[in-house]
Specification:
It is a single chain. The chain is of the alpha/beta class. It is built from 9 helices and 10 strands. Helix content is 37%, strand content 16%. Helix 3 links the parallel strand 3 and strand 4. 49% of the residues are buried.
């Protein structure tokens, strides 16, 4: 029988929302089974594809827009400008559609067709930057940033400028609080791949405040370990490894940078679908690869948490699932 407190919490979660923005967050946390194999620690995955656009970027997009509104940086009638691989763009397009803002996006053909179509479906106007071999090369994201910067010089525009936007951290603070609530505070490590580093830092702010002993492990592509080894290379894990050290990444908030290769990340994404029923993208595969490594280190009785970043539906046209 459910306690009155539990019943009240469930009623609150199922209450009718005033709009789709209120449907962001409160995503499920599930324990890994078959994929975990003989890893002794328990490994939990936050299913962020339960958010409205199928991505944890909904949290940051709403936080960036509402932060700008509070600070008077974004006003009615303004146009929002952003550079993005597509998940942030899809989430921003969703938020701007609900709030009534025009949105201009700089993106690239290096990213999945599904993401580009999603941004357009929500009403975003796109500038497509050609890539080399449809991969994330060291110069791609900086080039996209420069183009967006020029567009942002126009009057009545606001650049969310995600790599420098501290408002997003509030959105991911909420993710950290949810994890603590769902595990009754029994968290030993958090693992998350990073592009802007907004997720791993926003969650780390919450976890490290609870206990400095909770380990935080950001993950970058093994082919481009710019933070851990100073090496800048080409990889094919969408959404992470931008080719430079993200300004939001704070050394005092993480314990160790881990890496995962493109090949093992794609393989793990496929395994998650076929063995766990978790249908997610390649950066989620990287998260699981690294989380299992942390679980091996920590041993039995420990809880490792990571994130299913977005839905595999966004990658059906890529070689991960083609």
């Amino acid at each position: 029988m459910l306690s009155s407190e539990t019943s009240h919490a469930r009623r609150a979660e199922t209450k009718i929302k005033e709009n789709t923005l209120q449907a962001i967050g409160n995503t499920p946390l599930v324990k890994l089974g078959r994929v975990k194999g003989k890893v002794p620690a328990d490994v939990y995955v936050k299913l962020e594809y339960y958010n409205p656009t199928g991505s944890y970027k909904d949290r940051m997009a709403l936080a960036m827009i509402e932060g700008a509104e509070r600070d008077g940086l974004l006003k009615k009638g303004d146009t929002v400008i952003e550079y993005t691989g597509g998940s942030t763009g899809s989430s921003l397009a969703f938020v701007c559609a609900v709030k009534g803002y025009r949105l201009k996006i700089v993106t690239s053909d290096a990213f999945s067709d599904e993401k580009i179509r999603t941004m357009r479906a929500f009403g975003a106007e796109l500038t497509i930057v050609p890539s080399v071999g449809r991969k994330t090369t060291p110069d791609l994201i900086p080039k996209m940033m420069r183009i967006a910067g020029e567009m942002g010089k126009e009057p009545h525009t606001y650049q969310t400028n995600q790599f420098y936007n501290k408002h997003m951290l509030a959105g991911y603070n909420g993710l950290g609080n949810e994890i603590l609530d769902q595990l009754d505070g029994r968290v030993d490590a958090f693992v998350a791949s990073f592009g802007t580093a907004g997720c791993v830092m926003g969650v780390a702010e919450v976890l490290k405040t609870r206990s400095k002993r909770i380990g935080v492990y950001p993950v970058e592509p093994a082919e481009s370990p710019i933070v851990s080894k100073g090496v800048n290379g080409t990889h094919d894990i969408e959404g992470i490894g931008a080719g430079f050290v993200p300004p939001l990444l704070k050394r005092e908030l993480y314990d160790e940078i881990l890496t995962a290769s493109t090949e093992e990340s794609k393989d793990m994404a496929r395994r998650l679908a076929s063995e766990e029923g978790i249908f997610a993208g390649t950066s989620t595969g990287a998260n699981i690869v690294a989380a299992l490594e942390v679980g091996r280190r920590l041993g039995a009785g420990k809880n490792v948490v990571t994130v299913a970043v977005d839905s595999g539906l966004k990658y059906l046209s890529t070689d991960t699932y083609a």
